[in-house]
Specification:
Layout: H1 2-27, H2 34-37, H3 43-46, E1 54-58, H4 62-78, E2 83-88, H5 91-97, E3 105-108, H6 114-124, E4 126-132, H7 138-146, E5 151-156, H8 160-168, H9 170-177, E6 182-185, H10 188-197, E7 204-206, H11 221-230, E8 238-245, H12 249-263, E9 268-274, H13 280-290, E10 294-296, E11 313-315, H14 322-327, E12 331-334, H15 347-350, E13 355-358, H16 366-375, E14 379-380, H17 387-395, H18 398-415, H19 418-430, H20 433-442
Parallel strand pairs: 1-2, 1-4, 2-3, 4-5, 5-6, 6-7, 8-9, 8-12, 9-11, 10-11, 12-13, 13-14
Length: 457
Amino acid sequence: MFYLIYNLLSIVLLFPVMVYHLYRSVSRGRAPAFAQRFGLVSGKERAAICNRPVIWLHAVSVGESIAARPLLKALRKRYPDHAIAVSNTTETGRGIASAFPEKDLCIYFPFDFLPAVRLSLDTIKPCLIIIMETEIWPNFTREASLRNIPVILANGRISDRSFKRYLQFSWFFGPALRCFSKLCMQTDIDRERIIAIGAPLDRAVVAGNLKYDIPFGWVTDDEKNALRKRYAIPDNLTVICAGSTHPGEEEYVLKAYRGLLTCTSSKLLLVLAPRHPERGDNVAGLLEREGLPYRRYSTIHGRDTELFCAGDVLLVDVVGELMGVYASSDVVFVGGSLVPTGGHNLLEPASLGVASVFGPYTTNFREITALVLQYGAGIRIDNPDELSETFQALISSTELRKVLGQNGLKMMRDQGGSTERHMNIIDSYLKGSTDRVGSAQENEKDMHAAIKPSGCQ
């Protein structure tokens, strides 16, 4: 009965969803890619995965794509004969994932509209599906289970803010959760929460956070110099980077930067990297109103580009450069934390040994924030007025920046191992996957008549 009602609603809501995606894509200057969202993949794209067992990994956006990278590398190394298809929901996520060398195919995730889901699964023919973090789509998970395709939730987490909403709609999420073969959660709290929402007790396990398994290490002087040349930043400037910023935060950062320019003898440069690069025009307008000289990264070309001067601003208006600008910086402010957005990934600067500053709003990364504070790998400020003072303390003390960087690298080293725990679970489902794929292809006509797995309603 649940799925009957859900599918009737999906038909009713399909048109509004399409209008929303069309508006979102056009407003951001990107094609809506409706074909793939309805399960259509071109023959040229399908050729990359033909005649091989396929592992399908779904990462909704940028953060999930980056978190999936250690898992993708491990899958490619351990299963070289398998094809890897990566799907995303957002355009920015697709921009990041399409550059991953481990993937064979990169597509948009289908709408959870039954014909689109069925066509996608018929086309990709995965032997295993891995869904990053907490993407729960009833039709997709149920249809995969009906085809006896294992579905694993990887790096699962449920934020404080989301938990109440999930509980209120447990009648909706419960049936879909029971279609997962295994739910690999980041912490004990995440496991307890997903069980409370409706996941089977015996399928929810704690596997740690994949984000701790991103590569980490000091950025060497040669690496930093090479990056600064790419960004037209002179070696003698002290660089402050404000990354993943949201509306309202740039004003705070610029106020702090102006204060530093008037009260410090250091030669400073600010790098602004909004969370959504399509906000570039809005942020550029703000810089013009503030009277600060700036250039967009998209206008910087080659070695002949004029170098920035002290007091300038580099505006990063493209996808995929965040880790590069972090690595070229001396101090990083991690955005989404001075406004009630929930914060962003503090592990990214920590993995590079770069000192970081962040605000009080980090509910989406509560475990990571607690560890960063426990290890002394970053500085939390309580309000925007503390930003300038904290920047000043870090700029004037090379030793303080070094200590924070060392602590961040120690944290990364101590907290690793989640990839291997995930892979041990994945291995148990991929054994004999080639045989399963061959059998599935022979019996493709009978797929929809497959016996429903126990517990999936």
